[in-house]
Amino acid sequence: MPILHSIVHRIDKTSDEQSAVLRLAEAEPANSEAMGSLLAAINDRYNTKPKAWGHFADTEAGSFVEWLTAYVENASDFVVFSHRLAEGFIALIDDQLSVGGYLLIAHYQQGDVQYLTMALLHQREGVGINEALEAVAAPQLNLGQLTLAARINLTQWRDDSPSQQYLSFIKDRGGKQLSERFGEWLGCREGIDATSETRTLLKAFSDYVESEELAEEQAREKTDALVDYANDQARRGEPITLDELSELIDEQQPKAFYNYIRHQDYGLSAEIPPDKRILHQFRRFAGRAGGVSISFDSHLLGSGVEYDEERDRLIIKKVPTQIRDQIKRRRE
């Protein structure tokens, strides 16, 4: 992950009553292994956080997108861009937070794609060992407290990609007002609800498996392929692409699942930001006992399938058509 440019500015604030004070770095630090490790750790943490996804809508003078445009079009250098960004960021800190931190801004590349990441990092006291082998206070960055961070896929944005989700930012459920103000400051128009889209995708997949009347082993293999791919995309901070997913689900008929979704009109976008919480709920329960074989997608528990713990019974609300028809023929 080559870092093209990076810089860190300091924002001092100790209480709600105190105004934030900005300490600007005047030059970029030399690229170091430590900075690379820090950025990798931030990305790993960022990918696990709930996020809003969208695109730029605010192009007014003095806006974030104006500063970013000037930078990528070489109208300003990276340090000048970072100063503008940090100075604009102060108002958000003063209005929403009682503490400051370190504002990291990094322009880097992964494969053929370039990104810009910004994150407010907080510090906590830790303990280390010095050269004299003594325990000493050692300040540490608290990446677990990552609440203000954004990432822009610069390649998609500048290449006129049809994607409407090249911009994302952390949207913690416990800090709704802060997230909303941050999104406004970025000039982001949210394009997709990741939770709703992920849930709809999984519903479409369940319907597809049922329509294909697949054997249990085949259904489990396809479920594992979907979940593994979606989780891998989530770890990388990338959206699920329906074309790629369809190919993984059925290599012999790579367009089958994609065409099924389109023909059934689920209203899904071509790219879906994965919601890891929803994905974790999606696995198949399967078992066999006393001549009865049962399997179903785990997310159906509590809706399509209920478990009566007191009587140790499963209640299936929607009987598969094939089973219902066979029972009817048996009674005739």
From TrEMBL:
Annotated Pfam families: NA37
Main location: cytoplasm
Location relative to the cell: Cytoplasm, Nucleoid
UniProtKB keywords: Cytoplasm
Family label: Belongs to the YejK family.
Annotated protein name in UniProt: Nucleoid-associated protein
Taxonomic lineage from the root: Bacteria, Pseudomonadati, Pseudomonadota, Gammaproteobacteria, Oceanospirillales
